[in-house]
Amino acid sequence: MFGIVRAPEAGWGSAATLLAIAGGLTLIGVFIALQASRRDPLMRLSILRTPNLAAANLAQLLLGAAWIPMWFFLNLYLQRVLGFGAFEGGAALLPMTIAIMVLMVVVAPRVMNRFGFKAPIVGGMLLLAAGMAVLSLVRADGSFPVDVLPASLIAAAGMALAFIPSLGTAISSAKPEEGGLAAGIVNTSYQVGSALGLAAMTAVATSQGADRIGDVASLAHGYSAAFLGAAGLAVVGALLAALLLHVKQPAGVKQDTEAREELPVAA
Q1: CATH 1.20.1250.20 fits 48-246, yes or no
Q2: Mean pLDDT for the stretch of residues 200-223
């Protein structure tokens, strides 16, 4: 991750970037080899074959890859293009933050109870993509009420709907005694996705003029490209979730059904 995050500044073909990435991949390979050869590994590799676990982790990875760049470049747009100060920029993000909190606590659990986990993951990521696609229309002479607020609330709704179901699916798919391991894996997936997405979208934005500090037209164009690229990542996440996640009857429902079937029929 260090190599990837530093690549836009140091250069993708520089020795520092290539050595850092190669070193990281080597260490990952050593870790996998050690876990595969030990009788009592820190991480049982076969856990990734658990139904829905790998798919939910992939959804979390792409969710982080889309969401974090959006948050990052939205801050830059507010301050460097619209001229907001640090405090004003932070305050401008409060509506989105409050919306996420309310939707995650109140709405997302009800949607999961009504539709299961797959539909909100897919729908949430598509909604996130839609919000970022609208954000990609930002203008050099834009305004917060028109260019930022509506799109950011749409994106926040998508994030809230997709995050809780994908996180819960990843953790609940594992055996109860491996819940901690599953939680560690999915948290890592989200963090890795966040760093990868931010590095990739930074490269996209820079190539489209986001490195021209002071030129608000170029900055807006570069940030627009990053929003659009992040929207693409969210769409890919929605498609993969739709293809790879398998809907299954919750254990509690199955046990309740079996219990009712065993009850004697009243005369």
Answers
A1: yes
A2: 90
**pTM: predicted TM-score of the whole model, two decimal places:** 0.84
CB-count exposure of residue 24 (10 Å: 0-12, 13-18, 19+): middle
User: Long-range contacts made by residues 38-45, C-beta under 8 angstroms, separation at least 24?
Assistant: 43/181, 43/185, 44/178, 44/181
- The residue ranges of every structural domain in the chain are 1-42, 48-246
CB neighbour list of residue 181: distance below 8 Å, 6 or more residues apart: 43, 44, 47, 174
Confidence of residue 267 (pLDDT cuts 50, 70, 90): very low
Distances (CA, A) of 183 to 41, 43, 57, 138, 186: 16, 12, 10, 37, 5
Place of tokens 């930002």: 138
| Nearest one of 48, 52, 59, 50 to 247, comparing CA atoms | 52
The CA distance from 243 to 79, in Å, is 39
How confident is the model over 161-208, as pLDDT tens digits?
A: 999 999 989 888 888 888 888 999 999 999 999 989 998 898 899 889
Q: How many CA atoms lie within 13 A of 40 on its CB side?
A: 0
For residue 152, how many other CB atoms are within 10 A of its CB?
A: 24
Tokens at 194, concatenated: 């966040």
> Residues 105-132: pLDDT tens digits?
999 999 999 999 999 999 999 999 999 9
